[in-house]
Amino acid sequence: MSLLTIHPHKNPESAEVIHDFNAIAEFLKGIGVQFEHWPTGQALSAEASQEDVLSAYAKPVAELQRSYGFQSVDVISITSDHPQKADLRAKFLSEHTHGDFEVRFFVEGRGLFYLHPDDNIFAVLCEKGDLISVPANTKHWFDMGENPNLKCIRLFTTPDGWVADFTGSEIAKSFPTLEQFIKAYA
Prior knowledge:
This protein is α+β, with helices and mostly antiparallel strands.
């Protein structure tokens, strides 16, 4: 179940919680974030390659490429036995921005986006079927969890793919990890 929490910047323990998908999408639209749910009828094996995933979702991906001018598309697939899972998690957990808007479609698994566009922090739990786009230059971080299990299609308007500008802020350490978030709010 996707959900949204809204935390005051200086009080991470306090949160407004929204469970209704349509209410989440409408609220996020107000801060420039696209949030949709796509059908995931394609059965893919756990070992599905990038080519398999992109082939299964070729039509909606092509539509997004035409609509937004995406120049590159890839698939990130991380499981609990991934040899670099701790390093990848640490990198994504550091607050950063992108000059490009960030688009993710969750083919499998889940993850937690924290968005920091103003004095509030918005935590969005994304699950299988969710598509989220984070506007360019929006401060954010992402937690895939201690034992990740996710497969996401990533789309970029530049051929360089994922390029982050880290803010140097330690704010992410003040907010719940994916596991703590699920225990507290899901």
